[in-house]
Amino acid sequence: MQGDDSEVLLRMAFRRVPMPQWKDLIQQISYGSGFAGDVSEVTASSPEKTDEPFHFSYRYKRKDYPNWSGRQISSPLPPMLAAAPDSKPSYPILLGELGSFQYESHVELPKGYSPAVPSGVDLKEDFAEYHVSYAVKDGVLATERRLVAKVREVPLSDYEAYKKFAKTVGDDHELYIALSSGDAPANSLQNAIARLPGSDNPEASRSYDEAATAAQNNNAHVSDTGAPDNGTAQRADLPQGMTQGWLIYKVQPIYPEAARQNHIQGTVLLRATIGKDGRIAELTPISGPKELVSAAIGAVQQWRYKPYVLNGDAVEVQTQITVNFQLK
User: What mean pLDDT is predicted for residues 54-79?
Assistant: First the structure.
């Protein structure tokens, strides 16, 4: 690295720390980058030679990285962008040095294993760009992430755009990739759950935990519908916490006036079939106040989901949907 603030800070750190303690310094840098394993074979260029780019290298070892027991891996790259403030600040958001920053990782997969390769990411805003690509070749998973900083500070007028941008970047950094072997196919449900974006909403977090538990206990499964077209059609039975992550268009129900006047509120639970195109194909009420069922069905019929893809083909999904009615 050369010509940015990171170079200055690293040179200062390596100058202050005696060479025999460089391993401890690199260990702390590794921890700070999100890697909890052990470092060894540390090397670094001379901090005093400022006319040359500064570089350092080390070997990294971590048992069960990052979730090998669940046959999931991630790209071993440090974060590229700080999270946005929870609320709109009174000052511009510091983005840092201008320019293009690129990280690459190459993970050699165990023999006989193949990953469920994630889709790429391409974001463009006035203040920055973010581009990601994933590829597999000769048993190696390659990840390339590139951040282009166009301004040093993000103006307050772009706070909402930056918050969304930073969240997408953070979700990509935290992405887990499921692996499959010849005799043990990857749990596509667990992989899809792992790729759901994070949320600070307690209800969303609870639904995520329920979906993950259901997948681990094999409560979510795929069944053969026996349809004659294209040989064998499949339908996936998925927990509600999982399908919530694929909802792309949602219509809020209109509170029935009669129910409002009679102070009727509560939760309507529906059994839903989502078609291959992401549209609601069928709705069946399971429970809830009868005065609210029609309004719930009328709203949910307009919802749209991303199609659920299994083994390369879109399939129907059966799930449950809850619609809450609460008087204010």
Answer: 80
